[in-house]
Amino acid sequence: MFEWVSDNQHLSRVVAAWDDHIALDTEFIRTDTYYPLPGLYQVASAGLIYLIDPLAITDWQPMAEYLTDPDSVIVMHACQEDLELLHHHLGLMPANVFDTQLANAFVSTDYSLSYGALVERTLGVTLEKHQTRSNWLRRPLSDDQIKYAIDDVLYLGDVYQHLHNALQQHGRVHWYQHDMQERGVYDPVAPDDYFRNVKKAWQLSRPQLAALKVLCSWRERTARQENVPRNRVIWDEHLLGFARIEALSKQHVFDALPRGVANRYAEQLINHHAMAKDEDLPAALPRPLTAAQNAQVKELRATALDVVEDMQLAPELLARKRDLETCLRHYLAHEELSEPYQAWRGELLATKFLHRLQGGSEALEDD
């Protein structure tokens, strides 16, 4: 029912037999590391299943060439974690990904439907899901692990064909393709940009933001170098607290952190905190929306949900709160809609959104 692929020559032979589209899934471990550790690649093509062992194979060039060929369609479900693994393990991004989870959102009202639920809805097949937290680095794999791995790609090709046809029937192929240009790429956060994601960072002054930026960048690079989760180095809340201090001292560090962590990183934290004084000041981060602006976001959401109901789309495609907030902020700064609402979403919403925003401009002024 499947081929176990565990040497370079075998991998080269099976890749040569693959069709112009394959179903691909991955299994990995990421408990104690920053980067995912590959445990298994599963591929389905032309009715055959291949379980590819990353613990044994050393020459990935044939598979890399297939994945980066624009004429090859790589079918995945909820592809972001798989793309991250491919990026770190093989150093590549597939050229042509079809994400069944995203595609389903354009032809149904469900945005984050699981693979098992999608298979059951589309094909009437119920899958067993009980190996998600399994140890995929052990060998040999258990029979249950192998069954789980096979199921994850066995039906993916049929789901792909169903969704591809549905997108064409609904006339939404170009909408889906537009969003896949972003979803089909793994784009890690740059160390110098991580500070923007820290909760409550907007409360900091620009000099404090400079300190937070330097500390977060150091933490990200340290976690990557040591290959440990970032919270195994220092938590965001500690970095935020240190950024508020004008001159960080060893006492500050030892008061805030466990002794072992403080002993290891105190000198680096103090040195990098001091370096921030020589950095260009970052722009202030956006403040939370005012009550009037939040009310306007709710009106935009209501408008988008009316369209969603008419079109039978997943609400998250048009009415996700953070997208609407970004759109409002962009309009206030530039008097135009943000990029997503200028593309295919603009075909459905631009006129309605601009009418609401222009009509409520006085209420949108900052308090």
Would you kindly provide a written description of the structure presented here, covering whatever features stand out?
The model has no long low-confidence stretch (mean pLDDT 95). The longest helix is centred in the middle third of the chain and has 21 residues, at 206-226. The chain has a 6-stranded mixed β-sheet with strand order 1-4-3-2-5-6, sandwiched between helices. The protein is 53% helix and 9% strand. It is of the alpha/beta class.
Compact summary:
The chain is an alpha/beta fold and 367 residues long. The chain is 53% helix and 9% strand. Helix 14 packs across helix 16.
The CATH topology of the largest domain comes to Nucleotidyltransferase, domain 5
Average pLDDT rating = 95
Beta fraction of the residues?
5-15%
Question: What are the segments in which pLDDT stays under 50 over at least 5 consecutive residues?
Answer: none
- Estimate the helix proportion, in percent: 40-55%
State the secondary-structure class: alpha/beta
Radius of gyration: 24 Å
Total DSSP E strands:
6
How many domain modules? 3
Along the chain, the helix and strand elements come as: EHEEEHEHEHHHHHHHHHHHHHH
Q: Which CATH first-tier class of the largest domain would you pick?
A: Alpha Beta
Please state the second-level CATH architecture of the largest domain: 2-Layer Sandwich
Shape, please? flat
Tally of DSSP helical segments: 17
End-to-end separation in angstroms reads: 66 Å
CATH superfamily of the largest domain: Ribonuclease H-like superfamily/Ribonuclease H
